[in-house]
Amino acid sequence: MADNAGPLGIIAGSGALPRRLVESCRVAGREVFVLALEGAAEEATVAGVSHAWCRLGAAATGLDLLRANGVTELVLAGGVRRPSLTGLLPDWRAAKFFARIGYRALGDDRLLSSVVKELEREGFRVRGAEELLAPDSLMPEGPLGRHQPDEQARADIEHGLHVARAIGALDVGQAVVVQQGLILGVEAVEGTDELLRRCASLRRQGPGGVLVKAAKPGQERRVDRPAMGPRTVVVAAETGLRGIAAEAGMTLVIDRAEMVRAADRAGLFVVGVAAP
């Protein structure tokens, strides 16, 4: 982790990733300030660390809090369910931003890219989570754990990768579920867990399906990489899948050792694959 005089600012959404960043900074001796997003971040994320809660649409307040706590470097981590513009209740600073970029016309990746550019315009350096985590935080190519895909699963993975890249090019999502050549579902605003639960009721007889995750072509890698961890494996097993394939070198792996143990226990394969 690079030396820096000030604390690392973590704009925190839901999930384990913000907590892993806090832990990584603690090990490295780096001070942190967590700007926890209301309705997304969890109490466990901010336990024992300097933090403040901020509404998603309160951009002016958030920027003031970051500067008041000496933050010059930022990382955006964790999930945030995107609200409607009226539900966002933007303050004057956020409203000015959305008026310039056109909120309704933007998909998630283009919106996040615009947010990064805005933060850089405000003088912050935005870093990717993978820069701050362990060297094995990105999915390697090949299988992890004891189980490997068979011929049918490999065919589903290949098909799923092409579909995932296609929906990613449209800025729709980063994941798809394939079973025996059939697309059971594609990820949209609901996120991967809900995609898997939705597909559970659509599964066919025979070998279970495969979850395939891939980055959107040309996406802003610092803030919107595909990610997976032990929870992904648990939900995949609960919903009848037999494996997970994720783009190697692009997908963030959270708690890799525990994820592999969970996959081995459940009899699922986890494999890193090259992009088509």
Annotate the secondary structure layout.
Layout: E1 8-12, H1 17-28, E2 32-37, H2 43-46, E3 51-54, H3 59-68, E4 73-77, H4 85-88, H5 92-101, H6 108-121, E5 125-126, E6 142-144, H7 151-169, E7 175-179, E8 182-186, H8 192-200, E9 210-213, E10 227-228, H9 230-238, E11 243-247, E12 252-253, H10 256-266, E13 269-273
Parallel strand pairs: 1-2, 1-4, 2-3, 4-5, 9-11, 10-12, 11-13
Antiparallel strand pairs: 6-13, 7-8, 7-9
Helix pairs in contact: 9-10
Summarize the structure in words.
It is a single chain. The protein is an alpha/beta fold and 276 residues long. The chain folds into two domains: 8-131, Rossmann fold; 135-273, LpxI C-terminal catalytic domain (Cytidine Deaminase, domain 2, 3-Layer(aba) Sandwich). Helices cover 37% and strands 19% of the residues. The chain is built from ten helices and 13 strands. It has helices at residues 17-28, 43-46, 59-68, 85-88, 92-101, 108-121, 151-169, 192-200, 230-238, 256-266, and strands spanning 8-12, 32-37, 51-54, 73-77, 125-126, 142-144, 175-179, 182-186, 210-213, 227-228, 243-247, 252-253, 269-273. The strands form three sheets. The chain has a six-stranded mixed β-sheet, sandwiched between helices. It has a five-stranded parallel β-sheet with strand order 3-2-1-4-5, with helices on both faces. Strand 7 (175-179) and strand 8 form a beta hairpin. The mean pLDDT is 90.
